[in-house]
Amino acid sequence: MTLLGIDVSRWQDDNSTPQMVDFNRARSAGANYVFIKASQSTWMDQDILKNWQNARAAGVPRGAYHFLDWTTTGAAQGKFFAGVLKNDSGELTPVIDYECRANIQGKKAATEGLYAACNTVEIALGRRVMIYTGPSYWREFWDGTHADYFAARPLWIANYGVAKPAIPAPWKDWMFWQYSAKGDGLKFGAESKDLDMDYYNGDLAAFNAAFGLAHEPTDHEILLDLVKRVEALEGKLWIS
Fold first, then answer.
1. How confident is the model at residue 100 (pLDDT cuts 50, 70, 90)?
2. CB under 8 A, 24+ apart: contacts of 181-188
3. Does residue 129 come out as left (phi exceeding 0), alpha (psi in the -120 to 50 range) or beta?
4. Alpha-carbon distance 133 to 147, whole Å?
5. What does pTM read for this prediction?
6. Is the dihedral of CA 21, 24, 30, 36 positive or negative?
7. pLDDT tens-digit profile of 76-95?
8. Nearest to 132 by CA among 146, 153, 105, 148
9. What is the model's pLDDT at position 236?
10. Which residues are registered as beta bridge partners of 62?
11. What is the DSSP string of 134-145?
């Protein structure tokens, strides 16, 4: 079983119009959660504040991600990301996005930058982070160190055009899978034509349990509960 979701950033919004991502439409189209870009380096995504607020208002569980680049240290970026989220870190796991090639200084420096970013965020927020990456990037830019640390953090894997994602060591499984960058943006309330699409590795009950979310009853469950209430009431009336 998998559970559908989306991820967005400023690229899903047309700045020439007042419209932002319509998260009510996203939810109606089947998005059970959304990951939203919060920051990169030491600057905020220009749409994070509105996207964060609007997704919450629409009742869509939110996770924030930071795009780790190589313009400054991982620790500095982790501190900035945590600062963005300090008052509201979202319902889902904060994410460090590990995929940038520009200005990279080799796998040892990249691995240490990732480790420092993750560790800084976790200390600041008191929450375990998730790592987003692609199989080929990870194989190229992980130097083999901190294996136990990374394996203990959930994996959000980006792998397109496959029946199931490749899982790089040291992980054994994935929590989220970005399976396409060609989702129907307009259908899900974005202004961009294309949209990143994701799966959670489990059903709705598992998802809610993993993130401590209240179960929202389905129409069928509501109807069954109503029937039970009516039957119980009729039973009491018959006895009296």
1. very high
2. 183/6, 185/12, 187/25, 187/29, 188/6, 188/25, 188/26, 188/29, 188/31
3. beta
4. 15
5. 0.89
6. positive
7. 999 999 999 999 999 999 99
8. 153
9. 58
10. 34
11. -HHHHHHH--S-
Confidence of residue 52 (pLDDT cuts 50, 70, 90): very high
| Beta-carbon count within 10 A of 152 CB | 11
Residue 233 has pLDDT above 90, yes or no: no
The C-alpha torsion from 32 through 137 and 135 to 184, rounded to 10°, is: 40
Q: Fill in the DSSP letter of residue 234.
A: H
Instruction: List the structure tokens of 137.
Output: 């990037």
Q: Which two tokens stand for residue 85?
A: 């989220």
Residue 19 is predicted with a pLDDT of: 73
Instruction: Specify the 3-state DSSP secondary structure of 56.
Output: helix
Structure tokens at 90: 């979202």
- Exposed, middle or buried, 103 (CB in 10 Å: 0-12/13-18/19+)? exposed
Q: What is the CATH number that goes with domain 3-202?
A: 3.20.20.80
Q: Which two tokens stand for residue 198?
A: 């994701």
pLDDT given for residue 11 in this prediction: 83
CB 94 within 8 A of CB 63: yes
Q: Where are the beta strands (DSSP E) in 19-164?
A: 34-40, 43-44, 62-67, 95-97, 130-133, 155-158
Q: Is the pLDDT of residue 223 over 80?
A: no
CB 171 within 8 A of CB 138: no
Q: Which residue has the tokens 């208002």?
A: 57
Reported as a single tens digit per residue, the pLDDT across 60-70 is 999 999 999 99
- Residues 6 or more apart whose CB falls under 8 angstroms from that of 169 comprise 147
